[in-house]
Structures are given as structure tokens and as C-alpha cells.
Amino acid sequence: MTMQSKHIMALALKQYSLAVTKILLLRHQRKKNTEKHESKLAAWLGSTELRNVFGSLMSEAEIVGQPYSVSYICEQLICGRQSAENMISECLAEGWIIQVKQTYNGYYAGPEMSARQRQFAETHLKWAFENGAVTAQRLYLAAQDMYGRHV
Fold this sequence. Notes:
With 151 residues, the protein is mainly α. It has a single domain (3-147), classed as Arc Repressor Mutant, subunit A. It contains seven helices and two strands, in the order H-H-H-H-H-E-E-H-H. It has helices spanning 3-34, 40-47, 49-64, 70-77, 81-94, 111-130, 133-147, and strands at 97-101, 105-109. A hairpin with a 3-residue loop joins strand 1 and strand 2.
């Protein structure tokens, strides 16, 4: 790999890093500025990182059409069974997730949680474009294709 290709890839990675930082700051600022006006679900999801990621995982299960078992949830979230079961119980009681009884109990996001995830994805995608993350990523990948995938 030439010095020029290393420079292009380093510049693209630097720009991408700056864009990701900006997106994280926007996410944090949005959360802090709107906490008081959010729905009960949004408040629940925003209360801990684990709950937030659990909501995303339940939305993924709904999107792919595959209810996730407690064991799978624990494995993906790297959390204890009791923590997963507590979140499941809380969300079932509110109607935020749906339980499917098969050979095992499986869970996926209900309509409100799914809508919340789509809203988050749309906002995040908008921020990624506005802050150059998509452009920097494309530049980095193009440089890798052009000069070889050796970072």
C-alpha cells in the first residue's frame, strides 16, 4: 500500500470518526432535551443502556420475523437471565412486546416499540447523512477497494 493510499484511508477514517462523534452528541442532546416530554416507553428505554439495547433487539426480532428466546436475549445482551426476564415482564405488562408460545417462549416488539425503533433509525440515518458519516464511510471503502483492504 502506498503512502498516498494510507493517507486517503486515514483521512476518511478520521472524518468518519468525527461524524460518529457528532451523531453520538446529537443523540445525547436530543435525549436530554426531550426526556420530560417523552412517552412512557421512551422513558423506559432511555432509563438504562441495557433497556435501550433490549428494545432494539426486540425490534430486530419483529423485523426479521423471528421471536427471540430468553436464552438468546441473554446471550446477545450479555446479561443474566433475571435481568432479561424482568425486562420481558415489564414490557409484556405494558404491551410493548409480544409473546409467542412455540416449543419455547419467544418475544418480539409490539407496534409501539417497533414504531419507536423506526423513528430512531430514520433520525439516525438523517444525522449520518447530515454529518458526513455516510460520505466518509463510502470514501474509506472506496479507498480500500482501490488500494487493497489492508488497514
